[in-house]
Amino acid sequence: MRHFLRNAIAGAFALGLFAANAQATTITIINTQDGPTEGFNDPTPAAPIGGNMGMTLGQQRLNVFQYAANLWAAILPSNVEIRVQARFDPQTCSPTAGVLGSAGPIEVFEDFPGALIANTWFHAALANKLANMDLSASNDISATFNSDVDNQFCLGSSDWYYGFDGNEGTDIDLTSVVLHELGHGLGFSTQVTLSTGALFGGLPDQYMRRLFDNTTGLPWTSMTNTQRRLSAINPSNVVWTGSNTTAAAPMQLGPKPVLRINSPPSIAGDKVIALAVFGPDISTVNISGNMVLVNDQVDPNADACTPIQNSVAGKIALIERGTCTFASKVLTAQMSGAIGVVIYNNVPGAPVTMGGTDPAITIPSVMISDVDGAAIITELNAAMIVNASITTDPNQLAGTDSQGRVLVYTPNPLQGGSSVSHWDTSCFPNALMEPAINNSITQTTDLTRYMFQDIGWFTGATDVTHGPAVTRLYPATPNPFNPNTAIKFEVASAGNVKLDVFDVQGRRVAGLYEGDLAAGPHVMVWNGRGLSGDVLPSGVYIARLLAGGETASQRLVLMK
Predict the structure, then answer these.
(1) Distances (CA, A) of 186 to 123, 129, 172, 456, 543
(2) Are residues 362 and 305 in the same domain?
């Protein structure tokens, strides 16, 4: 057996909470690296919030870490304690962007007793689980989180939210970030040096063994270093081939959001897009219209950073990325009467998730590449009518290839700490292990637990198809709906079950069931009415299931 010390792999940003399931695994947070008055030891008084009863800032932070660790421990079966050395330190940050946290394995192992495949690196926690013993005296995972988030100069008015209930509002849910970053340390990352394509220590790792490039038709294990380096910057063409994740994708992902160019024929077809984290739920959108390149008559003329001077009323506005925020561009177009916005990249490479917040935005927006933007502009300059639709395609799953395999994140240029070791940003609903935080967090395991099943975490566990039994919500049908939707769910064991509906402000608006149910699948129908019996207004709602100490949630869209 060989093992190597490995510096923590930098994850990027965190995404979502998810449900837990009772197991015997123990994950311990090791608080040894913060100073006497910083991070976990910060003595600043704090009021209990969202179920976190810590009375100081440091204690609340430690409580969140242990809470998130317990959720992972409830999902992943292991007889060996998993030790996470964690700390809070200042990280790169500005009023508009910043690093939230990073985590990765401290050591990786190969050819240990119980290894699933020879000559392959495994993250320490997974290697210990498979060996059924602790292979090293070292801790297993190293994690660092940004202590500056609670300061005004970092991410503006957004602070860490220390509650356990996901009601972070405009703040940043620390539980979600910790869950995401621990995911990297537990196995959701490759050891390949992406800038060169070189294998760590000359060997493949268990994660990269399931990466496949649709362009070359090769798995990463069969590639040269140069081929891997190029594959890591091959957007929307690298997939995860794990069978459990592929089988689960139809339960976890919805119809694919698309920008479809209807005419002219020279550029017709679906374009690769990235979504905005603000504005309407893209699954509710179905608009069509002619496109128009905006002109604000201030160089650069098409960035919509000042009032738009040409007419975009009733049209889909085409806007250049850059200079001002995504949200401000879309709001400017909306105020000028646009029915939708397409932002094209101003640098080479794939479109990126558009961050920002503005509750006043009611029109949809997507981003396309610089190449697709240039092609549309060429047609518009030739006085051609470019007609497009922003909609969803029910025949395709968001975030998958034509065979239903989930895409991994491979932007061009390479993004250190994010590329390859995340799901692609085209996943919808957004998945836990995407590279950027967003506003569609739900308390479900989504694709993550199935990916861990693919790499061996459930080897020897019960329930071969799904791993240990869990409480889960399946996609409601129809959704969007009017007037009724069927909420399908499964509970792991007989006992008390509670199914409620909340609005996006976290207020309970409907109670669908509370009482005992047998283990297994169930269906409850919601008629869109509230606690008083009145029909609720159109909008986004959250169905939340509580059963056996587990929680699962999903978004519901009522449309009239």
Answers:
(1) 7, 11, 23, 11, 29
(2) yes
**In sequence order, what are the beta bridge partners of 146?**
89
Cα of first residue to Cα of last residue in the chain, in angstroms, is 62
- Of 87, 293, 288, 104, the residue nearest 182 (C-alpha): 104
Strand ranges for 187-268 from DSSP E: 211-213, 218-219, 238-240, 255-263
Question: Could you tell me how far CA 408 lies from the centroid of its own chain?
Answer: 12
Task: Return the ∠ at Cα 444 (arms to 173 and 63), rounded to 5°.
Answer: 40
Q: What is the pLDDT of residue 2?
A: 54
Question: What domain count does the chain have?
Answer: 3
pLDDT at 90: 87
The residue ranges of the chain whose pLDDT is under 50 are 7-23, 441-443, 461-469
What residues form DSSP beta bridges with 122? 109
Q: Does a structural domain hold residue 399?
A: no
pTM comes to 0.76
Among 88, 99, 98, residue whose Cα is nearest residue 59: 88
DSSP states of 101-154 as a string? EEEEESEEEES-TT-SSSS-BEEHHHHHHHHTS---SS-SEEEEEEGGGGSTTS
DSSP state of 481: B
CATH number, residue 533:
2.60.40.4070
With respect to residue 240, please indicate whether it lies within any of the assigned structural domains.
Answer: no
| Whether the Cβ atoms of residue 18 and residue 179 lie closer than 8 Å to each other | yes
Of 412, 427, 455, the one marking the end of a domain is 455
Q: Is 331 in contact with 360 (CB distance < 8 Å)?
A: yes
The CB density around residue 135, as the number of other CB atoms within 10 Å, is 20
Note whether 155 and 56 are same-domain residues: yes
Rounded to whole angstroms, how far apart are CA atoms 540 and 526?
14
Q: How many CB atoms lie within 10 A of CB 388?
A: 26
Rounded Cα distance, 226 and 6, in Å = 23
- Residue 19 pLDDT: 26
Name residue 424's amino acid: D
- Reference 61, options 2, 129, 146; nearest CA is 146
Q: For residue 264, give every residue at least 6 positions away whose Cβ sits within 8 Å of its Cβ, in sequence order, or none.
A: 379, 384, 385, 386
Print burial letters for 149-160: b (CB count within 10 Å at least 16), e (below 16).
Answer: bbeeebbeebbb
Same domain, 154 and 85: yes
Parent domain of 161: 2-213+442-455
Number of H helices, E strands in the chain: 8, 27
DSSP label at 372?
Answer: H
Does some domain include residue 245?
Answer: no
CA distance 504 to 404: 31
Sorted by sequence, the CB contacts under 8 Å of residue 335 that are 6+ apart come out as none
Q: What's the rounded Cα separation, in Å, for the pair 305 and 333?
A: 10
Instruction: Give the whole-angstrom CA distance, residue 420 versus residue 410.
Output: 5
For 11-65, the pLDDT digits (tens) are 332 322 222 233 458 999 998 778 888 899 999 999 999 889 999 999 999 999 9
CA–CA gap between residue 304 and residue 376 (Å, rounded): 17
